[in-house]
Design goal:
Order of helices and strands: EEHEHEEHEHEEHEEHEEHEEEEEEEEHEE
Low-confidence stretches: 1-24, 337-368
Shape: globular
CATH topology of the largest domain: TIM Barrel
Strand content: 25-35%
CATH class of the largest domain: Alpha Beta
Helix content: 10-25%
Number of domains: 2
Distance between the termini: 24 Å
Structural class: alpha+beta
Number of strands: 22
Bound molecules: zinc ion
């Protein structure tokens, strides 16, 4: 999947709400012949500035039903070093056997931690984190690239490093042009970086959402109401190779709170794979009332807004409707008396041009 042809690729924002009281292992649909894998590629332990032991990250991910994680401790920032010896490979080594036992895919990673530019970048699927110590950040990332790393720019608009505006620097162009920048965090922790989605479209970068958790997801209030930020990866298999292949091929959706962002093809498939629509009334006689039935099989509440088409005067339907998780929903469609109108989910789900601060992006559509 390529973002290259911007006009033909629609980006969608799909606003959803995770069902309250969800089970620990939540259900999301597989799409387009791929498995949907719930991944978090950014977190810390006591081996950098985190507050937990590496095995805790595995337990935490298992409790929350994740498929894959990467522990990405800072290479250049190790404030616990007087108590915990600096060893950039230890977090992975310590967590590995528990990850195998719990069937969590553990991806070896690290966070390259520099001032802006280029800021912080995660290197995933590396083979040896101890080799990433070098003053020259370009050399470090080149080394990671030679190890086969997938490299993504973290929290590009983090206030500490981008106090006024979020900027794509010349250094990022240099990394990008040398094949050393593949993805970008649209969501990190509780934050959203709108510029990242613009650059993802322009430059074919993979969209990511990661927790960057330093304490626990519970303490950081990521899971009380819904879920931690997740990168949904569409893999050919539930393996490390399957994830790597998908990340390099931009097969992801970034999910924070009640918003999903990603390529339209994936978002549309994701929604339509979430349930069954039946009995869609395509026409009404005067004064007639018909119903749509939608069975939502997932643990996602879909918040829909009616988007009116050209013949919209001929019918009425709820302006807003929630397709509840794991429930059978019945939005009513009522004819206003003008005869035919195109009714049904197709109307309710028609996209509208996104308006607001990002309306300069052509072809971006919005579902709520
Ligand atoms: Zn960082
Ligand atoms: Zn971090």
């Amino acid at each position: 999947m390529s973002f290259k042809n911007i006009l033909s690729v629609l980006l969608l924002i799909l606003t959803i709400k995770f069902a309250s009281g969800q089970e620990e292992k939540f259900h999301l649909p597989d799409i387009l012949g791929y498995q949907t894998l719930k991944c978090d590629f950014h977190m810390h332990t006591v081996f950098s500035d985190g507050l937990v032991w590496p095995t805790f990250r595995v337990e935490e991910a298992w409790r929350e039903g994740l498929d894959a994680i990467s522990i990405t401790d800072h290479i250049e920032y190790t404030p616990h070093s007087s108590d915990v010896p600096v060893n950039h490979n230890r977090p992975y080594e310590i967590a590995k056997s528990l990850a195998e036992e719990k069937d969590i895919l553990l991806i070896r990673g690290a966070e390259i931690t520099r001032g802006m530019p280029p800021g912080h970048l995660n290197v995933l699927f590396i083979k040896d984190a101890s080799t990433l110590v070098n003053e020259d950040v370009f050399e470090v990332l080149k080394n990671a690239g030679e190890q086969g790393a997938f490299i993504h720019w973290n929290h590009p608009g983090w206030r500490a490093q981008a106090p006024d505006s979020t900027i794509w620097w010349d250094e990022h162009t240099r990394l990008y042009e040398n094949g050393l920048l593949h993805g970008i965090e649209v969501f990190n922790y509780h934050s959203y970086y709108p510029e990242a989605i613009v650059w993802a479209v322009e430059k074919d970068l993979t969209v990511m959402a990661n927790s960057d958790v330093h304490s626990t997801t519970d303490y950081d209030k990521m899971i009380q109401s819904n879920h931690r930020p997740l990168t949904l990866v569409f893999g050919k298999s539930r393996t490390e190779e399957g994830i790597k292949d998908a990340l390099f091929d931009q097969r992801t959706i970034a999910w924070l709170g009640n918003t999903l962002m990603g390529n339209a093809a994936f978002l549309e498939s994701f929604f339509f794979a979430s349930g069954d629509i039946s009995d869609v009334p395509l026409s009404l006689s005067k004064g007639e009332v018909k119903y749509i039935h939608y069975k939502n099989y997932t643990d996602v509440d879909y918040e829909l807004e009616l988007v009116r088409g050209s013949d919209s005067d001929s019918f009425s339907a709820p302006e807003e409707f929630v397709l509840k998780a794991r429930q059978y929903s019945t939005p009513v469609n009522r004819d206003k008396g003008k005869g035919k109108g195109f009714l049904g989910a197709g109307v309710i789900l028609q996209s509208k041009k996104y308006e607001g601060e990002f309306n300069t992006i052509m072809g971006r559509y919005f579902f709520i």
